[in-house]
Amino acid sequence: MSEYISKWQREAIAQRANGCCEYCLMPERFSLFTFHIDHVISLKHGGITHLDNLAYCCGICNSNKGTDLGTFLNNPETIIRFFNPRTDQWLDHFELIEGMIHHHTIIGEATIKIFKFNEVERILERKLLMEGGFIGSFK
């Protein structure tokens, strides 16, 4: 169950994100669907409905993330947390080259894996937006 997020909160979150998904960087203006407000740490895990715990995200990232906080990679005994747009810098964990998002850290790797950043359709979409000059390369 989610908590009510006011119109002014939604607008502040969207403005802070420059109208882009804070996880995959997709601009909302090129999406067929409106973006979601994500609880970075879900209510289920003790997160709160406060600007410091809310992120602007596309439906694909929000759906793939769900209420998860992290995942396992190579070691089934160690959970790797996801990228947190409130405390992490995107370029510390990722880079965008020719439509593909590459990781610099295990946090980036875990996020790419679960959020499915590099599914073929998503890569092609980013590549087209880059070719059209709508998004740049992030290195």
TrEMBL record:
Pfam families: HNH (PF01844). Residues 8-63 form the HNH nuclease domain. The keyword Hydrolase applies. Keywords: Endonuclease, Hydrolase, Nuclease. InterPro entries: HNH, HNH_nuc, NA-targeting_endonuclease. Gene3D superfamilies: 1.10.30.50. GO terms for molecular function: endonuclease activity; nucleic acid binding; zinc ion binding. The keyword Manganese does not apply. This is HNH endonuclease. It comes from Haliscomenobacter hydrossis (strain ATCC 27775 / DSM 1100 / LMG 10767 / O).
